[in-house]
Fold this sequence. Notes:
The chain has one domain (2-57). It contains one helix and three strands; from the N terminus they run βββα. It has one helix at residues 51-57, and strands spanning 5-19, 22-32, 36-40. A three-stranded antiparallel β-sheet has the order 1-2-3, with no helix packed on it. Strand 2 (22-32) and strand 3 (36-40) form a beta hairpin.
Amino acid sequence: MQNMLTNIYDTKRHLDLHCIAGTACVTKKGDMKGYGTIWYHPDGIANIFSLNNVKKKYRVTFDSKNSEMDL
Length: 71
């Protein structure tokens, strides 16, 4: 993910990210071309974008047939 970001910097605030592996304290942000500023955790194996925030900028389509997502 680092190669997709510019202007990576330490933040004054942090984000506690809860996932199946536990909790990570995210203290960095960076700019992603075409999207904007995002939280960045260099040790994470994946980065997650909020569907709600993505759909504010882009049209989002997906097949929900086998999904339990409640939109």
